[in-house]
Amino acid sequence: MSVLDQLTSDLSWRESELGSLKVLLARKDISTQQQAVLLRASWAMLYAHYEGFIKTALTVFFDQAQRTSKNCGSLPLPTRSFAMSSALKSIRSLPVNELLGEIDSFDVKYNACAPTFPDVDTKSNLWANVLSDLLVSADLKVPYLEEHKAKLNTLVERRNRIAHGNFESITEISYYFSYETAVYDLMYDLAYQIDERLKLPPYS
């Protein structure tokens, strides 16, 4: 299965699940209170799929990058830094003589080796700045991130209040839909950008 097929398949089931909640919200026989509960549930579910897709998509990207890169040294600098993050952290803490030895052998021990990427960490609160840092690590540009930054931060903030058991009133279906649209814009744009980036060096 191609990378785009993997991402499209993942998007499909997420969109289907959110669509089931939309069917319930569209019903005319539910009370105002029931609608408010469904909107809170939809909000929490929207965040879950936003975070879940980002983590899945970037994991797919880094897995493919690992398979198709000749070595760590061929990677774009931000992606190479991400791949070497654990090793670099360890090297920085070495005594001076050992540090110099690691520097002398750096090309052989690190740049010439196949990359190994750490797990994608969304920090369980995928604020816009956290996502931006992850995209920089992957050398990806997703224009919809800047456009929807404020909405993404509000999505996280209100989801946290719901998750912590606080009352969070979301009364307008159209208000919720505007956030769902923003999340879809971002997820589909990310899938496209990943597919396009993997067609270019050093992955092609």
Percent range of helical residues: over 70%
Assign the structural class, choosing from mainly alpha, mainly beta, alpha/beta, alpha+beta, or little secondary structure.
Answer: mainly alpha
Question: Unreliable segments (pLDDT under 50, ≥5 consecutive)?
Answer: none
**Strand tally, please?**
0
The portion of residues forming beta strands comes to: under 5%
What does the largest sheet look like?
Answer: none
Distance between the termini: 17 Å
Sum up the structure in keywords.
mainly alpha; 2 domains; 10 helices; 71% helix; 0% strand; elongated
Description of the molecule:
By secondary structure, the protein is mainly α. It has two domains: 3-69 and 117-197; 72-114, no CATH class. The chain has helices at residues 3-25, 32-68, 77-83, 85-92, 96-104, 106-111, 128-137, 143-147, 149-163, 173-197. α1 runs antiparallel to α10 and α2 crosses α9.
Summed up, what is this model?
The chain is mainly α and 204 residues long. The protein has helices at 3-25, 32-68, 77-83, 85-92, 96-104, 106-111, 128-137, 143-147, 149-163, 173-197.
Spell out the blueprint of helices and strands.
Elements: H1 3-25, H2 32-68, H3 77-83, H4 85-92, H5 96-104, H6 106-111, H7 128-137, H8 143-147, H9 149-163, H10 173-197
